[in-house]
Design goal:
alpha/beta, TIM Barrel, 8-stranded parallel β-barrel, two-stranded antiparallel ribbon, 9 helices
């Protein structure tokens, strides 16, 4: 069993101009629901219910209050709804636009699909509102922004009280900058091998918008054992960007989780 007694709980940061305060690390939950077509350096087995409950308990002990999920993560949303303790203590980010069925992703950014996706997520997560919702971009950010109805539908759902904040998980700098100008939060890429979103993070800082970092550990490839520059160097790089609110780390390994929290606490304390 991993000992967590001597680990300080993670600090929290406000998500831009919203009233949501996120732990600086959030738990990514791809591995709770999907093991096909993923980009990790080593294979993994989807954990059982007991392991997932232990993971959530460790997160609470470590001060992690933020979880990232999506309909495209297989049965991740359903498992969160079934297994997450003290549901109101957690902030959950989910997504719209991408589905994953029979080993294939499909995309639909229409208003109807967006609303239907939100209604499904509310039922799966057993929630009466969603804290953060992102459009799960297929890479064509500006086409989605200019020609699809997903973002305007999310704005309506926010006005109706079903979601508290929204934005997009972008793939391009142009799309990220637009989202920062017009939405509450952007999910941006930031790591030692891909810094195309640094202008997005800087602009978010200027405008007091939320930034959640994805791929900060390069889906595990930042680890020295996978040929990367090391986990500590990766965390230092991400948290040296003043606009970052939180960073998603997807792990089902309690030792890795506690090690990550220790390192991030040290990095932030030294900055």
């Amino acid at each position: 069993m991993v000992k967590l007694d001597n680990i300080q709980p993670l600090p929290q940061r406000r998500l831009g101009s919203t009233d949501l305060s996120l732990s600086v690390l959030g738990l990514g939950t791809v591995k709770l629901g999907r093991d096909q077509q993923v980009k990790y350096p080593t294979g993994f087995k989807i954990p059982g219910d007991k392991e997932v409950k232990n993971l959530f308990a460790a997160c609470q002990d470590l001060g992690i209050n933020f979880i990232d999920t999506a309909p495209a993560y297989g049965v991740s949303e359903q498992r969160l709804g079934q297994l997450l303790p003290n549901k109101n203590d957690w902030l959950i980010m989910t997504k719209v636009g991408e589905s994953f069925e029979n080993g294939q992703s499909s995309f639909d950014f229409s208003a109807e699909a967006t609303r239907n996706s939100i209604e499904r997520s509310l039922k799966r997560l057993k929630r009466n509102h969603l804290d953060m919702v992102l459009v799960h971009s297929d890479g064509n950010d500006m086409h989605i922004i200019n020609n699809e109805a997903a973002l305007s539908e999310l704005e309506q759902l926010k006005q109706q009280g079903l979601i508290r904040s929204y934005g997009m998980s972008t793939k391009t700098t142009e799309g990220g900058l637009w989202v920062v100008e017009h939405c509450d939060v952007v999910m941006a890429t930031c790591n030692l091998s891909d810094d195309h979103d640094l202008p997005v993070i800087a602009r978010a800082k200027e405008l007091n918008k939320g930034v959640v970092v994805k791929k900060g550990l390069q889906s595990g490839h930042a680890d020295k054992s996978a040929g990367g520059s090391g986990i500590e160097a990766a965390f230092k790089h991400v948290f040296s960007q003043p606009g970052v609110t939180s960073m998603i780390v997807g792990t089902i390994n309690l030792q890795h989780l506690s090690d990550n929290v220790r390192i991030v606490n040290d990095v932030i304390a030294a900055s």
